[in-house]
Amino acid sequence: MMNFGLSPERMANIQEISERLKEFRDCNKTGLPAVAAQILHCCNRCGACCLDQKDISIGEEDLRRIPKYLKISRKQFAAKYTRLHHKAKGRSLKTEGSCTLYDKESRSCTIYPVRPMACRVFPMMSIDDTLSDEGLAYHFYDTCDGAEELAVTLLCEIQGLDLEGKRQYLAAHPERQAILEIVLLLKAIEIVHPELEIAKKRAQAVGITLPGNDSTVFQGALLEYLSSRTDPAQLDEFLMARELKRKADPR
């Protein structure tokens, strides 16, 4: 059993884990399957999300971090790089065929360490917390090659799994389900606040060893969690839509 660094005593203490889970859930505004999908997603640096975006929303935290990183004032940053969002309240990054902070030659973001929240959670998570948990879990964008690759990977993995057996196993082991959910919540916090060690501090408070994204054990745990939620038909539908779009516009 994967215990994420917890001692057998802590593994057995379901009540304590459940109480901690409530605390961490308050910090999370997205569905847990979406968090798992975001961690499993691998960006191939095609730049599509930076080259074809009408609005890249930026919030108050973005307006604090990005100017500091660029070593300019907030006022200077707002004037040079942002404009009013054309649909929502607030501001968005200027886009002139592409994000003004995207370097086409190197195919990279010039502010990657402090990129906006909207970019951090793309493409599987969302800053829109009005969507349902199930909706967020399948927040696949048809413009993202990485999303297509993930959908193919998940379908291949799912076909080799006994989904009903895994659902029954998780239902019979609530302590394992609770620990896995806490780890996913911690990873969500880590994605949103990478330069702050919030996730590590909260992991220490619970006594969990937070796995890295390259951990084989953690990848397996995420796939297991997704397998208990994922409907293969939805992945098939997404891939079919991608194929139809490719045939309609074979560029």
Estimate nothing, just give the exact number of structural domains: 2
Largest sheet: 3 strands, antiparallel
Give the overall pLDDT as a whole number. Answer: 78
- Helical fraction: 55-70%
How much of the sequence lies in strands comes to: 5-15%
Treating each run of at least 4 consecutive H or I residues as one helix, how many helices?
Answer: 14
Distance between the termini: 47 Å
Overall SS class: mainly alpha
Order of H and E elements: HHHHEHHEEEEHHHHHHHH
- Poorly predicted sequence stretches spanning 5 or more consecutive residues: 129-137
- Outline: globular
Compile the SSE list and pairings.
Elements lengths: L7 H5 L1 H12 L6 H9 L7 H4 L4 E3 L1 H11 L3 H8 E3 L6 E3 L8 E2 L4 E2 L7 H4 L12 H5 L7 H15 L3 H10 L1 H19 L5 H9 L9 H12 L4 H17 L3
Antiparallel strand pairs: 1-3, 2-3, 4-5
Overview in brief:
With 251 residues, the chain is mostly helical. Helices cover 56% and strands 5% of the residues.
